[in-house]
Amino acid sequence: MNKAKLSQALLVLAACFAAGCSPSQVAVDNTEQSGHKNGPAQTKDTQREASENDATFAENNAMKSQDKPIATMTKPSSDELAVKLAKSNDKSKPIAQEPSLLNGELLVKPQRLADGAIEVMLTVNNPQSHGVYLEFRSGMGADLMLLSGAKTVWKWSNDMMFTQAINYKTIAAGGSLKYRFVIPAKVVKSLREKQYDLRADFKGVATESNQLTINSVFSKLNLSQ
Prior knowledge:
The chain is of the alpha+beta class. Helices cover 29% and strands 27% of the residues. It contains 5 helices and 10 strands, in the order ααααβββββββαβββ. The chain starts with a helix and ends with a strand.
């Protein structure tokens, strides 16, 4: 091949690659460019090699596209949603205790009443150096719940009636309020587990402060003793 034809062939190749041609689309007829007898055989070999290169190139691209992660959004199953809902409704364990104005203690009296009922006392303390002014939306000052995991077995307020009038109280600095609850004997007799959780909720709200009034107060009811 003389220099003129070689230059022309290189220009053709460069133009084809610039246009996005694949190697198989560029074929130079060696028979026309040289007078060797083995020219046609060399042309077929070159075209076969170019086709194989194209196939390998396409296969590699396909493999790369398969390796790329596809972003998908999976919808949680009904079982997963049920577990999350049970955890969010689990009132037996305080997940986080926020700083509060008041604090409380929940005490289960060790001695049962004559009919077998259980007495529980809630004490709400004011550790502040000033009095705390409280608003109550009804006559209920506090409530008590008996829990088995996330299930409410019994609620004190369900058996009670309260006035619906708003009322107010002030807990003096260092002072306290006490609330007495009784778990009825018929409820105690119906319990089958050896241990339950108790949760007391104070209903007063400190209207003159943005701080949380009080957290829920928890204790254990042990029936194995």
